[in-house]
Amino acid sequence: MPRINYRLWLGILIIPLVTGTLTFSRPQHEKKESPASTQVSEKEKTWEKIKEMKKENITFPLLISEVNAGGLMGSIENIKGFLPASQLSADHYPKVDEGNKNKILEKLKFLIGKKIQVKILDFDPAANKLIFSEKLVEKDKIKDIINKYKIGDKIQVRITKIVDFGAFVKLEDTEVDGLVHISEISNQQTENIENILKEGETKEAKIINIDDDKISLSFKALEEKSSKEIK
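User: That's the sequence. What structure does it adopt?
Assistant: Structure tokens below.
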């Protein structure tokens, strides 16, 4: 430390200034947050957001960034997730012969850079797992349409596919599928359904059951009513 000379001038004590550098030290218990810990904190916030989105059944646009033979990749902020091909809607699911994986991959590549409306199907922060689903969005839309109907309603349906156990139909002007079981097709003997119904044909049917997103209909119920009216 420099020696200080004190002098009196006209009875006033003169104290010369001592120049030096004043420094402050951070207490040992105060540590700067490392970039790694900041990154962990941000991820934790995103997982909390994902948890809330799942709880509230939120639909959101997912930007597709990558593809593989199993499906598509996209992210919520800093967390990457997976949209399996099996969870795509009928519009986006790749239709290829014999499930050829190379052809599926080529079809999926057309979705890179596009946004698909999805919901969160499953997540696990510990395993760093995040799974999306487009089918859940489609299912909710179908439920909204089905909620407009009730058992006993008579509606127009279009026959889309005839199978051994009945006929699949589309309800009115919607993309909602319904089933007319073989036992509900006609009062006539129905060993060969194609003798009675034709794909693409439009007919009136009666709703006889609604179970979640499944609708069962009957042509026979309207035949029975017509025959009673004739009598």
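Residues 150-224 form a domain with the OB fold (Dihydrolipoamide Acetyltransferase, E2P) fold (CATH 2.40.50.140).
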